[in-house]
Amino acid sequence: MLKGFRDFILQGNVVELATAVIIGGAFTAIVTAFSDKIINPLIAAVGGGEGPALSFTIKEGVPETTIDLGAVITAAINFLIVAAIVYFIIIVPMNKLNELRKRGAPEEEVPPTTEDLLGDIREILRTQAATTVGGPAEGPASTAGPFDDTESTDPPRH
């Protein structure tokens, strides 16, 4: 039971996922600092006034009724930054790597169809019938045989 768990944990996808979560957590700190120190001051400069930039209060004196559009814009910018970084640093290289692996891998051999196998069997039976009935046939071997797929002039047997 422990061997199965160990194999599961050491599987490529699980290790990659754990690495991505750890890197994502560390990357969040970078994006938060970028937003707090660069994006928020820019939004505050555009919004102007006292208090949070680009915000308004529905009911004066009740801070819970304040709608802060600047925070929503900051969150959207944070999301776009994280999504772009993840896409260009993780997704694009992984897709390229998978494409290179597929090119290097040999193509899987396509198994023969039932019709191909039956045709091969028919040819083997023709060859055996021509050589075993009276020895090797004189002249060119006849292509007609009991398993020929051409139409017969004999009436059908029931």
Walk me through the structure.
- One of its GO terms (cellular component) is plasma membrane.
- It comes from Brevibacterium sandarakinum.
- Strand 1 (55-57) and strand 2 form a beta hairpin.
- Helix 2 (12-47) packs antiparallel against helix 3 (69-104).
- The chain contains 4 helices and 2 strands.
- A two-stranded antiparallel sheet has the order 1-2.
- By secondary structure, the chain is mainly α.
Rg, alpha carbons? 37 Å
Output the CATH homologous superfamily of the domain at 2-104.
Large-conductance mechanosensitive channel, MscL, domain 1
Amount of beta strand: under 5%
Widest sheet, order of strands? 1-2
Approximate helicity band: 55-70%
Structure class: mainly alpha
The dominant shape is elongated
* Low-confidence region ranges: none
DSSP helical segment count: 4
Ends distance: 62 Å
| Element pattern in H and E | HHEEHH
The CATH first-level class of the domain at 2-104 comes to Mainly Alpha
CATH architectural group of the domain at 2-104? Orthogonal Bundle
Largest sheet, if any? 2 strands, antiparallel
As an assembly, this protein is: single chain
CATH fold naming of the domain at 2-104:
Non-ribosomal Peptide Synthetase Peptidyl Carrier Protein, Chain A
Number of strands: 2
- The pLDDT mean sits at 76
Function: Channel that opens in response to stretch forces in the membrane lipid bilayer. May participate in the regulation of osmotic pressure changes within the cell.
Main location: membrane
Keywords: Cell membrane, Ion channel, Ion transport, Membrane, Transmembrane, Transmembrane helix, Transport
Subunit structure: Homopentamer.
